[in-house]
Every structure is written in structure tokens, then in C-alpha cells.
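Hello, quick one for you while I still have it in my head. Could you read through the record and tell me how the C-alpha cells relate to the sequence? No rush at all, and the record is pasted right below.
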Amino acid sequence: MKKDIHPTYYPKAKVTCACGNAFEVGSTLPSIDVEVCSHCHPFYTGKEKLMDKVGQVQKFRKRLSQKK
């Protein structure tokens, strides 16, 4: 590797989430602050709200058929 062109790599960079969870990853930054992590993200916690896409499609088709 050429000298003085690569950023410093921190193999144990500390990541801190807004929920209070902290863990270590490899990064070019010594510390990282994030808003959402795997402990508080709705997809990973199972608290995700799924929308009824089928109902929305049916409503759209109904409005479309009324215009014709």
C-alpha cells in the first residue's frame, strides 16, 4: 500500500444507537452515532406494520373503472 493516501482503519470502532445499544464494528471512523439499529428497528423487532396492498389496488381499480 502507498503511504499517506489511505484513511486510518479502526477495527473496533464503537457504534452507539439512539436507543442506547452499543456495539463494535470495523470502520474508518473511531465512533459512529446512529438513530436506528437492529435492536430498535421495526423490521427486526417484529413490530412492523404492514399495509394492506391488496385493498389499495382494489380501490384504485374501482375508481379507474368508474372514470371509464
